[in-house]
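Sequence in, structure out.
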Amino acid sequence: MTPTAKSDIVNLKLSLEQRFVDIAFIKRELSQIYEKICSLSVFPERYPIINSKTKYRKLSHKKYLILYTVIGNQVYIFYIRPSKMNTIQELQNI
């Protein structure tokens, strides 16, 4: 996981804590995102490439986008962002 993705997780946690008081709900949301990321250990190429230059792939989970790339047998997570952000449009302009 890149430093940007780690920062995204921290920001996501803070955002959830501001909007919800149910700690169990927050933990469940974060746990589900981690589970989705861990699922990439098996056939990570199953999700589409969204940027031919960067080879970023898009994994959706609820209202979140997880952008990653596969190099050799390694998966690199670059972004974990709310899907309402213009992350994909920004990446296509790279």
